[in-house]
From TrEMBL:
Stated name of the protein: Uncharacterized protein conserved in bacteria
Keywords, ordered alphabetically: Signal
Source species: Serpentinimonas maccroryi
Signal peptide segment: 1-21
Region named Disordered: 147-194
Length: 194
């Protein structure tokens, strides 16, 4: 009887062992967070995600934010609209960009202003093909509001956020009609590995 339980335990380990070894590896490169001004309650975090196997970004958190969501921006009738999404698919071996004007991690209910040069810890929660969750914490540098990327374009003017004419930031976040977005910074950050 004892041999039966040992065999059962080994069989269980054999089933769990390979599954655990197959947890996807998600590489996070060039993460950054847009700087804020006093009283601004929200900002975006941007990065490139590459998964070794199919995975999904399903949540995020940060000590600087009371609420963190994954967002998507789209243009509908020439108006930029932003909405929270349940998750973002990360196809195996394909880079997925989180950038201004597209997908991003939204940091809301900020507990403090975020100044250029600071670093922000962000925990990203992923889900593999078997719906098993795993997380990874990164540190993203805060980049100045006015830094612009070559070839980047602003989206200010559609439902202006907290920075009005500058088209920077996400503003109050309550308006369903969209939020202003500014220019994306140019200089890539060094890739971060957990």
């Amino acid at each position: 009887m004892r041999a039966f339980f040992v065999a059962l335990a080994l069989a269980g380990f054999a089933l769990v062992g390979p599954a655990a070894a197959q947890t996807p590896v998600v590489t996070v490169s060039e993460p950054w967070v847009r700087a804020t001004v006093a009283q601004q309650q929200a900002t975006g975090a941007f990065m490139r995600l590459s998964a070794s196997q199919n995975a999904r970004l399903v949540a995020a958190s940060s000590p600087v934010a009371g609420l963190t969501e994954i967002h998507e921006m789209t243009v509908v009738n020439d108006v930029m609209r932003m909405r929270a999404i349940a998750g973002l698919d990360l196809p195996a071996a394909q880079a997925v960009e989180l950038r201004p004007g597209g997908y991003h991690v939204m940091l809301m209910q900020l507990r403090q202003p975020l100044n250029a040069g600071e670093r922000v810890a962000i925990t990203l929660v992923f889900e593999d093909a078997n719906r098993q969750r795993f997380s990874q914490t990164i540190e993203a540098p805060v980049r100045p509001l006015g830094a612009a990327a070559a070839g980047a374009h602003g989206h200010g003017g559609h439902g202006q956020g907290a920075h009005g004419a500058h088209g920077q930031g996400h503003g109050a976040h309550a308006a369903p009609g969209g939020h202003g977005h500014g220019h994306a910074p140019a200089a890539p950050a060094a890739p971060q590995r957990p």
